[in-house]
Amino acid sequence: MPVDAGSIEIDEEGEDAVTPAAPLDIAQFVRAQKGSNRPIDGVYRGYAYLQGAERNDVCLVAVDDYAVLYVDAVELAARTGTQGWNDVAVALGEALGGAIAVDDAAVKTELSWIVAYLQALDDAAANGSSSIGSGTRLFVTTEESFDLGDAGLRFSFNQEYASGSFYTSVIGIDGSDVMAGASGVRAELRFADFCNTASWAEGTFAAEADAAGAFGRFLDDLDWSPLWVTLKTTGTAIVIVFILGLLAAWWSLRIPSRAQDIADSIFTIPMVLPPTVCGFVLLLLLGKNTPVGQWFIDIGFPLIFSWPATVLAAVVVSFPLMYRSARGAFESIDRTMLDAARTLGWSEGRIFFRLMLPLAWSSIAAGTVLAFARALGEFGATLFLAGNYVGVTRTVPIAIYFEWMNGNTDVALFWTGVIIVFSFMVILFINLWSRRTTRYRRRTQDA
Fold this sequence. Notes:
Elements: E1 9-10, E2 17-18, E3 25-32, E4 47-52, E5 58-63, E6 66-71, H1 73-80, H2 84-94, E7 100-101, H3 105-125, E8 137-141, E9 145-148, E10 153-162, E11 165-172, E12 189-198, H4 211-221, H5 225-252, H6 257-272, H7 275-286, H8 291-298, H9 307-331, H10 335-343, H11 348-359, H12 361-376, H13 380-385, H14 396-405, H15 409-446
Parallel strand pairs: 6-8
Antiparallel strand pairs: 1-2, 3-12, 4-11, 5-6, 5-12, 7-8, 9-10, 10-11
Helix pairs in contact: 1-2, 5-9, 5-12, 6-9, 9-12, 12-15, 14-15
């Protein structure tokens, strides 16, 4: 019996669904609006959608004007306790290419409730984007890897391409990139859906929870890796930027004036360039096909699309703010005071640490705050140079963009709030500390 879409009840998070007309319920539904066309662990797998840390009973990939649906027939046969899904697997195995259209009578009855679930959940998660319409031509397979010969495409489902991470991927049968279409095989990949079957106990589905309980469940399910990657990246970058910015500012004031203009332009230019341009230039200079990039690979330290690349991107875009603040502070120091120190026999190092740094500390602290904020919010250069690898290079700004693109607006809003609150607290702390240091120095001078 066909399932009426109006009878399907979806929970408030859009992840679980039930209907009395279906033999099973749906849990852990996720819509992936975007995938990645980059190599995974150094191997090109095609255009891949990240499923997560577990396999899924149901996977769907929307391509052009049709969609390809994978169902785990063995799992569903065991859950439903019927032979219907075994018959589906046999029918699909005998079909050309291992896939048949959903309107085939042999499988229509068993598929109708899954298709109805997917259409209802996908419509709820689309947020105005394209979804699975009732007129979409749907192909079905029970094989985790099969070729759709007419389209020249190979679909792979539940593939553990990286340790602990499962993917669904689409690649040309000849191994070509289906996004580029260089070999004549091209597909417009729209999105992917993933979910599992479940049996919700009566009265437990979509139970009303208080705000604290709902928020606690949200935090339990949240992937915290973007926060740790961001903190590690920003913390490392700000230490490097602080040291390099001070040294560059001090050195630029000791060279001839004409050379100063050139050095200042070089040090400042990342501040006025769009972040995507900075990332693209770094990719051209340090890519795997460049001498520098190849050298890093030869020494066993591949730089591009790795965590060090996130640090490098953050350093490049935030360095000018630190440099300009430090240089302006050093230029404002009375030169006669520095000359007097030299006549007393002070070394340049002692003058720098005992005289220049204390006098310029307020401006240096301000520059540190600005550089920190810039590194914390870096997006464009990081995406170009380091990519979007969960737990490795996916920082909070990158997570906000991709979570929003995947329809996870609540996760994107949470990370946005975290960035705002964290930035405010750090800036407030440094400003208070800088003010206290300045007040102490003034009292010392008055004494």
